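Colleagues,

Please find the record for the four-part complex below.
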Amino acid sequence: MSTLASLGGDLSRLRHLNSLAVIRALRGAEPLTLTAVAEQTGLSRPSTKDVVDQLVALGWVVEVPPSAGGLGRPARRYRFRADGGHVAGVDIGVHTVRAAVADLDGNVLAETRQTVSRDTPVDDRLAATFRAVAGCLAAAGLGQDDLWSVSAGTTGVVDREGRVQISAGIRDWAGVDLTARLGELFSCTVHVENDARLAALAERERGAAQGVNDAVFLHAGRRTGAALIIGGAVHRGFGGAAGEVGLLPVTHWATAADYLHDCPVVPADVPKGDAARHTFDAAREGHPVAVAAVERYADDLALGTSAMVMTLDPELVVLGGGFSRAADVLLPLLRTRLEEVCLRMPELRGSALGEECVALGAVGRAVAHLDQEFFGTGPGSIAPPR
Amino acid sequence: MSTLASLGGDLSRLRHLNSLAVIRALRGAEPLTLTAVAEQTGLSRPSTKDVVDQLVALGWVVEVPPSAGGLGRPARRYRFRADGGHVAGVDIGVHTVRAAVADLDGNVLAETRQTVSRDTPVDDRLAATFRAVAGCLAAAGLGQDDLWSVSAGTTGVVDREGRVQISAGIRDWAGVDLTARLGELFSCTVHVENDARLAALAERERGAAQGVNDAVFLHAGRRTGAALIIGGAVHRGFGGAAGEVGLLPVTHWATAADYLHDCPVVPADVPKGDAARHTFDAAREGHPVAVAAVERYADDLALGTSAMVMTLDPELVVLGGGFSRAADVLLPLLRTRLEEVCLRMPELRGSALGEECVALGAVGRAVAHLDQEFFGTGPGSIAPPR
DNA sequence: GGATTTTACGAAGGAGCCCTCTGTAAAGAT
DNA sequence: ATCTTTACAGAGGGCTCCTTCGTAAAATCC
């Protein structure tokens, strides 16, 4: 039984667990002294030294110069080598492909974008994805070999193996085995996920949903979608379709954004990407036609949201996506409509992240995969970095 | 940091983890030989003996006579002392209070019921609860002191602390601090949960949802409700209202069962508890009025269900509650309606358990609480049973 | 019925990991 | 220059696990 063997074991198992505890103490924090690590892990100082020395020998931890100014003998300081490896997060959208490269702590080093269109052929879209990542690597002074893991997010229903099952926005996208196709482009492991779910992950890790265990994330933009955070983790659903209430005809999510795009207040020469902004601006100034359009949009958004809220009773609903810049207009409307039907009204917040949130979530997912691989709680010992 | 300290630690920590592994190997299984335990845990035979001896000394494990008939020297056999302690699970319903008493492995030793009504005063209902448990204890030859934990399920929204927030069915039930009130009656720890969630837990542990990680449980009976299993665990929601889509007016769940109760095919002198059965029977024989009633009921049930299914994309939907005896009639109707709207149709099954499922789930919850207390993975050592 | 085979028990010896304790080293404070 | 504070480094010891070996108790074979 793997579940039994992963519990106890050898004496080396204890060292393994203590090594993980030390790494967790060192991750993402300022460089720590041995005493500080010992306090956090509960280990004795000599044992801490032993473990840290071993991690230094493996290459996961490096010593940094001691900090001056303190009382007593200066303590040696150590930090996790987050720059020992890197990950890429990609957002393969309808009109834009965004990429971000980060270190093992998720610190973003570079971001780039490539412009595409809904009719860009599959091969070209994949090539643009590769260029976006390559641009990040160049900007960060890294090579392909420094990349240990790549995560990608895209619109549509993505199954467990990373195949696009359904895609509302991108031409010829359904049926593409993204994990395989991207795997040909990159020499490291590749994972693929629905974009809204990665955006939700980003909000949970570094956005509006930090520390929240149960949240609904709304992607309100030219497309309308949703994702769920349950028990602190992103929920996929059995077929990867969790949160896709927008595909139910009764929610009208497929056409909800048209109220904003096709509003008469939008000048005729405005490109579709900017249309909604005009409507929101006009609504802010009280233009009745624009206000009505925004209200009808909020009606549609609230209907699908209420189904998720009633199902899950979340702590928080995050309004994300491009329209989250109009949260000042949308949130009050959404709140009113939800309060009418909700048993217990969840908190309602606008997104704290910008347009890169899917790429950021992809970075987080890639880091999580590496964490599992190198620092998982399972049996085995800690391997040296490549 | 508790999360760090719970990872590694002392040498005693290793022994603790290995003890847990041994206990898990012994739990719920036939008595095992030392060699068998060693194989399952991955420990060496001498270490296994050491750990088992220690557990025997503590009182958690007992030796049983060796089995005859094998080749070679007969091996000593050991088993977990599931009968060292006991739990009670209670279902405090509108018309009936059911109780079950089980050992630490969840094996039910006795079941009883008490009849109440929707207007039974709170104190009397609590007294009936106590009588139901006392009856179980007597039937199993146990005393109050043998009870280590009690879990109760009841209708309505129950908050994290075990207070009834909203109750549709039971008079004066809202506002009752059930954990505190039951705590006065029993000398052990008491936990309270929504009844549908406990029924779902029972289906997951020993019913139709075994091994399923994401499922929706429908309670279809005189009351209509639902509960969710997400990631293998029952989902509460932030305010304990997860799955209460039935409280949304648009679902019509509050009145859905009336189609069945008030159907003209039901003879006038039939008590309300049996009315639905007549309607289902008539529908089976093709009586048009009854068929129409069942179809309207299925319509309402499907609407709320579709919201949950679209939100969660579960692997399975379980039809439980009193009407699950009419699963042969209801499931096809429900399937047709869900297939119309569902992106990916989940599997659909009738409940595998009877009317005791809430009490069974409560037993499971009580056992889980004790497991956490005695055999949790957290720091500390294994304490002797009381 | 005795020898053989099979399986399990029990004790001894050894290695790894962590702890406590003690003395030494390096900085600022007096 | 000395004292105080903080950290480093090593020694010694205890606990837990592993491997190895000889012994014990059953069924099987001749």
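The longest strand of chain B covers residues 96-103.

Comments are welcome before we finalize the supplementary table.
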